[in-house]
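User: Let's play a game. I give you a shape written as tokens, and you guess the letters that built it. Ready? Here's round one.
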């Protein structure tokens, strides 16, 4: 088995993913955020009024972990939890004005990343790569 060629695709995907993660972490650090906090802000921005359970499902985290993420974001005055009118035990999640402003900066980080990743490709190559990556995502059967 020659790992140099037997896993070349996986190795290249790993290298790109590792560099993307480093870029994202470096950029988010200047806003005082980690990746999970940024993902939480993005989810709430796209789903205002959602509840913690939905955020936990999106993040793939236990509710206790999500609670800790939300506590930090609340302390930073980026997220607001409001009691639902129909259920006093349920709290809906919203971005504060500062959170709304910050989420735009976070979006800009990912726009810059997209531009860096796609810069070496022309439009046809980018579309072909997207088709192939979607196929891999659908058919690689990572859950089994």
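Assistant: Ready! My guess for every position:
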């Amino acid at each position: 088995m020659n790992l140099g060629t037997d896993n070349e695709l996986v190795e290249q995907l790993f290298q790109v993913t590792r560099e993307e993660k480093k870029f994202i972490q470096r950029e988010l650090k200047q806003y005082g955020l980690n990746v999970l906090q940024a993902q939480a802000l993005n989810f709430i921005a796209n789903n205002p009024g959602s509840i913690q359970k939905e955020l936990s499902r999106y993040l793939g985290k236990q509710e206790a972990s999500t609670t800790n993420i939300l506590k930090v974001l609340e302390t930073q005055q980026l997220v607001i939890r409001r009691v639902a009118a129909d259920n006093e035990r349920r709290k809906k999640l919203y971005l504060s004005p500062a959170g709304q402003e910050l989420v735009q900066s976070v979006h800009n980080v990912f726009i810059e990343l997209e531009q860096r990743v796609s810069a070496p490709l022309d439009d046809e190559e980018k579309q072909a790569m997207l088709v192939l990556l979607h196929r891999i995502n659908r058919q690689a059967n990572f859950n089994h």
